[in-house]
Design goal:
Two copies of one chain form a homodimer. Chain A is of the alpha/beta class and 362 residues long. Chain A has two domains: 237 residues, Rossmann fold (3-Layer(aba) Sandwich); 95 residues, Orthogonal Bundle (Tyrosyl-Transfer RNA Synthetase). Chain A is 51% helix and 10% strand. The first copy, chain A, is built from 15 helices and six strands. A six-stranded mixed beta sheet of chain A has the order 1-6-5-2-3-4, with helices on both faces. The longest helix of chain A is centred in the last third of the chain and has 38 residues. Chains A and B meet through helix 5, helix 7, helix 8 and helix 9 of A and helix 5, helix 7, helix 8 and helix 9 of B.
């Protein structure tokens, strides 16, 4: 972390964000320049929070973590604007998904975003293939980035992937475009695998600072939720590895009952030795997505597991029921905002931003 | 030429375009798919002609040749649309010229374009940094272009240059974007040095044909007018190598009197052996830019030179006076259309296209 200029959040920083379960639970384990954002919040100055989705499928419990952080950082101050990129260019370059297909999938993604509580009055949602400012910034950024740098950051890839990377730099700088009110602190909540990309974007921002005044983007890094099968991270390629926000109740049941836990080989052993919740994917789902206002419930599960007082079967049943309740609640909200999501996607597609940044004319 | 699928224009093709001095004089010496355009003209079907300018300075006698061809191919049929790219992204990536500087220089470029006789009712003029459709097409194109291909076509360059190349592919495909009326034959008049780029664009168009219906762009290739100093081509880097359309009379005089000719060492030798007009840059200027409707005058100069009846001094004086008259006439027209040029640039900058393609909604 030190080598790349990352820090773990300090006690003061966690305290400042103590209304966020993912800070209290140390799901956000590292950051860069978080104090720049805290200063902006404290002094009531404008800042932006930025994320996006590659619309190749529905949100799952892994990818949805970023949405929660995104909405939280917007809601944390009335001076925050939220900028959301529908990465249809990346979906094309990386997965061969046409812009039209992306548009369809994006409706589901945006509805999840709205159901998570985004304040639309201070949000700007766009398609990469339809937002010229992103390309203007990508072109600014490209000058002077060598092929050697591209190879070091992204590996030896085809031009589509390199173009997509430049466009993502454009995404991250978009909140600072003059049309969106110009330079401002910008926070990008990501998984740690995104850090090389963030570092390159900071280099670019720093190079363009003399003329454009860009502030180097700040970032937070969350733990990556593991696959339900216990190994790598949840992957869109393997449906049994994740719970999608669109999975129905019976499928969620099946996946949770099937999931990898920190249990022992036999009930007797588990009572004697206790379980290992740090290995348990079901516990991880609870930690990431349940009991947002009840840390004590999470702690109780952990304590009882370690003490051998709680076996995996009953534990799974409790978490499963609470998860299904949570998902149903989310789905109720989502169905309510679905017409709005359709409208937002349609207007973004037609390059007519529905909602504008407070100080910008986007 | 054969190796790359180029042909010289046939007698029939030259006959078809006999109202164009640059066909009669074989300045256009090669083409690809010119019959596709001739067919469109003959049958009254829509086609596009496309060119652009990297706004790093004023047009000169070399670069202006393309403008003449561009306007001619538009005027040749009432069904032609003319699409003109102000390549501000290329100017940035290649020369470090900011978009704002490009905007200023573009006014001069566009005024020359209008003075050359462009029909604005059927023209679309845009900035690369402001036209999202170009980037949509560039992104479509990028998928599957390998780094090896980029290196083969453009050499080992930085990302800015590669991005700029992708954007130029977007330029060439723009007339076929659904918003501009969809697939249609497109002619790109260029110098022969642009051929590798055209070939790559044809590959891309062919790959995207199944879904987008793109027609592979046709092209014509003109001879490159040489430097006034007799060696390489006119270069914006060396002002004595070219005559700019903004050079004043005394500067034009100086440059022509200074220019390399096909004359012999002494007047006596020249009377004995005759001159070598094929080596003469002053003759080349006449061939490219003078006596558009008087081939006989050009032939007379050539004949008299070869016969030793015409010495360089007097010849230069004649061509100089005729050139200055031609330039004054152009300048008169240009001053007239300058307010329109300003307006076009302003509106293109603000992403409000002033003139739309007949069947499109650009």
């Amino acid at each position: 972390m030190e080598q790349f200029g990352l820090s773990g959040p300090t006690k003061e920083q966690v305290e400042f964000f103590q209304d966020a379960p993912f800070f209290r639970r140390r799901i956000i384990f590292a950051h860069r320049d978080l104090d720049v954002i805290i200063d902006a919040i404290r002094s009531g100055r404008e800042y932006a929070v930025l994320t996006g989705i590659k619309p190749t499928g529905d949100y799952h419990m892994g990818t949805f973590q970023t949405v929660k952080e995104f909405v939280y950082f917007q809601r944390k101050s009335p001076q925050a604007i939220a900028v959301f990129s529908i990465a249809d260019i990346e979906a094309w370059e990386d997965n061969g998904i046409s812009f039209e297909e992306s548009k369809k999938i994006a409706i589901s993604n945006v509805s999840d975003l709205l159901a998570a509580g985004l304040d639309l009055e201070r949000a700007y949602i766009y398609f990469q293939s339809k937002e010229i400012r992103v390309h203007e910034l990508a072109a600014l950024a490209a000058r002077g980035i060598t092929l050697a740098t591209m190879r070091a950051v992204y590996g030896e890839r085809h031009m589509g992937l390199y173009l997509s990377a430049l466009v993502q730099i454009g995404d991250i700088l978009l909140p600072q475009h003059p049309d969106l009110g110009g330079p401002k602190p910008t926070l990008v909540p990501v998984g740690i695998d995104q850090d090389p990309h963030l570092r390159l974007t900071r280099d670019v921002a720093s190079k363009l600072k003399p003329k454009w005044g860009f502030v180097e983007p700040a970032s937070t890094y969350h733990l990556i939720i593991r696959s339900l099968l216990g190994d790598k991270k949840m992957s869109k390629r393997d449906p049994m590895s994740y719970i999608s926000l669109r999975d129905d109740e019976s499928l969620v049941r099946k996946k949770i009952l099937n999931a990898f836990t920190g249990g022992r080989e036999t009930a007797q052993l588990q009572r004697e030795l206790g379980g290992e919740p740090w290995k348990c994917v079901v516990y991880e789902i609870a930690k990431f997505h349940l009991y947002a206002d009840k840390d004590e419930e999470l702690e109780k599960i952990y304590r009882e597991c370690v003490a051998g007082e709680r076996l995996c079967g009953e534990c799974k049943m409790q978490i499963l029921e609470d998860l299904i309740e949570e998902m149903k609640e989310h789905e109720r909200r989502r169905i309510e905002v679905l017409p709005t999501a359709r409208q937002i996607v349609e207007r973004a597609w037609n390059r007519q931003p529905l909602y504008t940044a407070s100080s910008g004319g986007a």
